[in-house]
Amino acid sequence: MKAKEVPQEESILEGNRRACYAEDEHGRYVVVPSKGWEVEKIVNAQAHAEIDKHVEEARQEVLRGEASPLKYHMLKCQMTPGLLSATTGLWRWQVHRHFKPKVFASLKRPMLERYADAMKMNVEELCKAPHNIQPKNHIMPDETEKT
Amino acid sequence: MKQPFDHRHAAHCESGALSALLRNRGLDLSEPMVFGIGGGLFFLYMPFIKMGGIPLTAYRDAPRVIIKNICKRLGITLRTMRFRKPEDSMAELDRLLEKGIAVGLQASVFYLSYFPRDMRFQFNAHNLVVFGKEGDNYLISDPVFEHPVSCPADDLRRARFAKGIYAPKGLLYYPEKMPSSPDLKEPIKKAIRQTCGRMLNIPLPFVGVRGIRYLAREIERWPVKLGPEKAPLYLGSVIRMQEEIGTGGAGFRFMYTAFLQEASDLLGLPHVKDAAKMMSENGDLWREFAVKGARLCKGHETGKEIYNELAAIVRECADREEEIFRLLKKAV
Q: Is A3 near chain B, with CB under 8 Å?
């Protein structure tokens, strides 16, 4: 790839640039910063759409009263029951059990805090799933300012 | 606490982080050199190891292999530590920074708040270098970023203790002892021989050149086996591993071209120079695969023919890589 062929397209990098290796005018491969490439944008969006699909399914389940908000937030954080159990230090079967709305409703504050801390949110957020769809690709609440 | 740190933009986190740590201790090796001597180039397609329901594809060797190989080959002693308690690991990090030592860390991308939102996936094997602390923020030379960044302590702690596959367990590392001007010729030859061997001679269908051919066969089967919904997902995942995660383009093939160019300067072997040229063209072909594949993922193309066309490109890449590594094997 020649340096001038390095894509400089609108993409997922939010103003950052990624390092590509490309051939300069002397035929040497050097780092050439790239603003982004449509290809990576497409495959990234595809991966996020797949995650979002499951998040949305879970949100509907919560609204229908078939699942607890815990399931929704877990998927929102791109976690599996296995990963959430490892992060909280709970058993996997406990996590699965807490997906039941009734069981979740009976959880005590310390347990809720444990989940909330694992997913970096507060207990109030943990206990509800949004009625309206949130903006796309919202990953975590209270994002810190980007540097 | 802040020390001067020479930050340089890199394509891949592991080779970039180690190159930065060595450079700031007086051993200036480029990222491609670290990647090449570390034997980073590889290919693997594992149909039965699935991540999120999709087979694992990798254009490189497993995490930490590059670091392990280069330390062994150049005689670098790397001090590494893992921790059980997050508090201990953060205290140790602060202590080292106080002493003026820049520290390499393994961390999960998901918790690093300076990453663009769309790039924050649960991936635990990211590498970065911490070189200072200002208040509650750590100053970070993240190799894949153009400029140094900073990260709140709480986020960094979470990133260092994320659970799951490749859990970092607070891993930190820094070079303790290293030669000031090591001989590179022998290590380069050894590394090239190793990469040739791994690409050509492993008798498994899923790795090396065989793995690339296996992927080509699989691509042909996808539209029938998986159906129109799942097949583009599988394809998209391959392209992401090639282009979206930091590879420097074409699944590390362009970075390896840079390495072969530097290597041929040092070794003075014309065949290595030829191989560099061939690797560059091979990279262009991989890019073509990505462009055509992405068009399919976007839904512009459907039908079996396009999958066959993609498979033909991948097969051509396999043929070219076989030729390149046979040439390199003879040359060194």
A: no
